[in-house]
Amino acid sequence: MEPSTTAGVEKPAGKKAPLMSVEEAIGLVTAGVSALGVEQVAVALADGRVLAQDLPARRTQPPADMSAMDGYAVRGSDIVQTPARLAVIGESAAGRPFPGAVGPGQAVRIFTGAVVPEGADTVVIQENTSRDGDVITTTAPTAALRNVRKKGCDFTAGTPGLFAGRRLTGRDIMLAAAMDHAVLPVARRPRVAVLQTGDELVLPGTGTGQDSEIVVSNAFGLATLARRAGAEVTDLGLVRDDLVAIRAVVEHALSGEFDLVVSSGGASVGDHDLMGPALRAEGVELFVHKIALRPGKPLMFGGKGGVRVLGLPGNPVSSHVCAMVFLVPLLRALQGDTAPGPVTAPARLAVDITANDVRRDFMRARMDRHADGTVHVTPCASQDSAMLSVLASADCLLIRPPFAPAATAGDPCEIIPFDD
């Protein structure tokens, strides 16, 4: 892989430090990343997709002055004094506008969403009128120009209403539809291959009950995070701790079918940690290895021929936390997301905590929202990187910077809320 042109990753020159900072690692993982391409999707299917181009309105909304209330369309100059008597000359309903014009001393019965007739500029709500045949009498004052939605007050034709890089919500899709777009240009979904290594691993429901077995979980969590971030995920399965076997799977993953390969396990430097050697043997240049974070110090990132490779730790919590910090922002960036994250939020500590060491700590924690709107967080009692029950019970990650001093309850802090 050419770092400056294919995968957009620049190799740090002369780096001798044993641990790389989280900020530096995130910078390298997302360096030079741009959207993978553009595809058209039906507006009804665009939820969560990232808009690839600015989206201008194809029409003006409202297309004409519209009534905001049920009542009578009148000339404001005719109702300066109350009571005012006006002759009703017709009706305007949504989709059935009144064909004529309102003259002096006249009114048109009108309903919410109907076009305000020519000559009228005000709607008197029906509660402020009495009617006798074809004559109404205003019973309360109404200021001129009231209860009318002016033409173009929402948006005008040709003006962008949504901008490239925005991850579309249901509200955005409503706006896009109202702007008369049946299909939307969105970034292509990243194609992600997920694999997990380990002789001890078995699939759920397939084990023999031996104490040496561990039921695989990481791949499921990684796939879920990746899909929620907009990726298409292919599970390449479990791979035993064998260099030849791992190389065979890596070779397939690098063949061009995928944009990103994500592995879990084998990222450290033990005798059975073979992911790094397998990647290097297949020509992957690794730019990131050993990060100053907890949990998840052994993390690898590199690429070959435009395919990015992210090697995550094998401990379940470490794998998931690293995926939140590195994988999700990378996938969002690959779709042109202008704010790929990690997305943090301010909070306050609910308890006292001790000083931190050299590594940035992502502690599993619970949030409690107080009556004043502030969020207070309590770290979970155990921060063991293998305990999935603790991860499942948490609803955020409490971020502790390197060398952070001891802090007391009420001190400000920063969190990454879980969004699932």
Give the helix/strand layout.
Elements: H1 22-30, E1 38-42, E2 55-56, E3 66-67, E4 71-74, E5 85-92, E6 106-110, E7 122-125, E8 129-132, E9 135-138, E10 148-149, E11 160-162, H2 170-178, E12 183-187, E13 191-197, E14 201-202, E15 214-215, H3 218-228, E16 232-239, H4 243-253, E17 260-264, H5 275-281, E18 285-289, E19 293-294, E20 300-304, E21 307-312, H6 316-333, E22 345-349, E23 360-369, E24 375-379, H7 388-393, E25 396-400, E26 412-417
Parallel strand pairs: 5-6, 13-16, 13-17, 14-15, 17-21, 19-23, 22-24
Antiparallel strand pairs: 1-12, 2-11, 3-10, 4-6, 4-7, 5-9, 8-9, 18-20, 20-21, 22-26, 23-24, 23-25, 25-26
Helix pairs in contact: 1-6, 3-6, 4-5
Query: Total domains, how many?
Result: 4
Q: What's the total count of β strands?
A: 26
Which homologous superfamily in CATH is the superfamily of the largest domain? MoaB/Mog-like domain
Tell me the Rg in angstroms. 30 Å
- How far is it from the N-terminal to the C-terminal residue, by CA? 35 Å
Q: Do you know the CATH topology of the largest domain?
A: Molybdenum Cofactor Biosythetic Enzyme, Chain A
Apparent shape = elongated
CATH architectural label of the largest domain:
3-Layer(aba) Sandwich
CATH class of the largest domain: Alpha Beta
Low-confidence parts lasting 5 or more residues at pLDDT below 50? 1-17
Strand order of the largest sheet: 7-4-6-5-9-8
- Structural category is alpha/beta
Largest sheet: 6 strands, mixed
